[in-house]
Specification:
Shape: globular
CATH superfamily: Rhomboid-like
Order of helices and strands: HHEHHHEHHH
Largest sheet: 2 strands, antiparallel
CATH architecture: Up-down Bundle
Number of domains: 1
Distance between the termini: 33 Å
Strand order of the largest sheet: 1-2
Number of strands: 2
Number of helices: 8
Strand content: under 5%
Length: about 200
């Protein structure tokens, strides 16, 4: 008589969606803590371009925002796109988030003017957008490819115009660098984490 290990239980859709919502909750908690404590955390924890001390912002800056309006503007697209990324699983969501944060952060640190401070989750938002678009092309099967293509078309229909404007015609004080490198990081993550056929 032989025994086999029980099949690994799949994560529920709710538990997958919970991960981006929890990360968004952390952003809100940090904004609240920053608002009620003296000084600003942005000057210490932001990406500061071309400064070695600003490299810690590569990881920390997506959690910071310049104010409540900035956080509010990022919240809905972050939640929606983050949940779509998390449908591939919690491990995939955190892996994509890490790759996007590093690529967006280093790209911003290197390309922005020396001494420029950059904060905000929009690099992650653009990264999730890039991931979802590229994911359709690296799907393991035609069925998955069609599913992800439909998701990509829907995402592009809802956010495409704003995303391209955020890169090519960003207003003053908006980091097109974080947007561009975030989208690139999302594409890199889609290829790096593609399921094997």
């Amino acid at each position: 008589m032989s025994t086999q290990p029980a099949p690994q239980q799949r994560e529920s859709l709710f538990s997958r969606a919970l991960h981006p919502i929890l990360l968004l909750g952390v952003m809100w908690a940090i904004q609240l803590a920053d608002a009620i404590t003296p000084g600003s955390w942005n000057g210490v924890l932001a990406i500061e371009s071309w400064r070695l001390r600003g490299l810690d912002g590569v990881i920390l800056s997506p959690l910071l925002h310049s104010g409540w309006g900035h956080l509010l503007a990022n919240s809905a697209p972050f939640a929606l796109l983050g949940i779509l990324v998390a449908l591939d699983g919690a491990r995939r969501f955190w892996g994509v988030t890490a790759v996007v944060a590093v690529v967006a952060g280093l790209g911003t640190w290197f390309v922005n003017s020396p001494g420029t401070l950059t904060v905000g989750a929009s690099g992650l938002v653009f990264g999730y957008f890039g991931y979802l678009l590229v994911r359709a092309f690296v799907a393991p099967s035609l069925g998955h490819g069609i599913l992800y293509a439909l998701i990509a078309i829907g995402v592009a229909g809802v956010y495409g115009g704003a995303m391209f404007a955020g890169i090519f015609s960003a207003g003053s004080g908006i980091s097109w660098q974080a947007h561009l490198f975030g989208a690139i990081g999302g594409g890199v993550a889609a290829v790096a984490f593609r399921p094997r056929r």
